[in-house]
C-alpha cells in the first residue's frame, strides 16, 4: 500500500488545490490517513481488531477518527508550524491561518469521508490487478510473473510522496490568497525548548515501538513511528505554550514609609510669623 504519510495526502491535496473553498483541507488529510490508524492496535499475530479498510468502516471508524485528529491538529498546528524549517518554500504561516478558520460542519464531514474514500480507492488500485483485466484484458502477474503489489506499492509511494510535497509547497507558498487565507503573525517561538522536548519524546517513543505487539508487521511499525513523530511535535508545542503563558515572577514587595520631601514648605507657623500676627 502507499505510505500513510505523506503519500496518501497527494490525492486530497490535489482536490484542495483544485477547488479550495469546496473542501476542508485538514479534514481531507486526516480522513486520508484514518484507515491506517487502526494499525496502532495491531496484535501479536499481526492482525488488527477489525477491517478498517472497508466501505462500512468509513462511518464507524474513519469519520470519528478523522474528526478527532483534525481537532487535535487545529489545536497545535499554529505553534508547530511556527517552528518548522522551510517557511520560504512551504509557507507554513499560510497553513497556520488555515487551521484557525474551520469550515462549516457539512464541509468538514464530507471532506473527512472523501479523504478516507480516496485511501480505500488507492489501496484497491495498488493491492489488486483486477482493474487491469477490466481495462486492458490482462493480469499483471500472468504477464510478468511478478505480483502487482510489489511494483505498485513502491511506485505509488514514491509518486504520491513527491506529489504531496509539491502540492503542499504550492498551496502554502503561492496559493494562500486563492485558498482564501491571509498570512498571520506566528505565535511565540522558542526553538530550543520546542526541539529539545520533541527530540526527547521521539527518542523515547521510537525506542518503545519495537517492543509493542505486532512490531514485526511493517505497516504497524511505520504507522506507530509516524504517530511518535506527531506526538513529539505536539509535546513540543505544549511545552512552548506552557512556557509562554506562565505568569512572570515578581519580587516580593515590602512596605516602606513614604519619603519625606525636605524641600516642601512647612505648614507649621514659625516664630517670626507669630510675632507679626501679634504685633499691633
Give the arrangement of secondary structure elements:
Blueprint: H1 9-18, H2 25-33, H3 57-83, H4 87-90, H5 92-99, H6 105-127, H7 130-136, H8 140-144, H9 148-173, H10 176-179, H11 191-208, H12 218-245, H13 271-278
Q: Care to give the gist of this entry?
A:
The protein is built from 13 helices and no strands. With 280 residues, it is an all-alpha fold. It has a domain at 9-186.
Which structural traits does this protein have?
280 residues, mainly alpha, 13 helices, 63% helix, 0% strand
Give a description of the structure:
The protein has 280 residues and is an all-alpha fold. It has a domain at 9-186. It contains 13 helices and no strands. The chain is globular and about 70 Å long. The chain starts with 8 loop residues before the first helix and ends with a helix.
Low-pLDDT runs: none
Give the SSE order as H and E letters: HHHHHHHHHHHHH
Number of helices: 13
> What kind of oligomer do you see?
single chain
